[in-house]
Amino acid sequence: MSYEIIIQALWLVLPAYVANASALIFGGGTPIDFGKKWKDGRRILGDGKTWRGLFIGTFVGMTAGFGFSVVAKYAVIIDFPIKINDFTGFPMMIPIIASLCFGALIGDIFESFFKRRVGKKRGDDWILFDQLDFILGVLLFSFLMGSLLHVFNLTYENWFFASFSLWHIIVLLILTPFFHFFANFVNKKLKSKHLSKQNI
Question: Minimal CA–CA distance to 60: which of 95, 28, 15?
Answer without folding.
Answer: 15
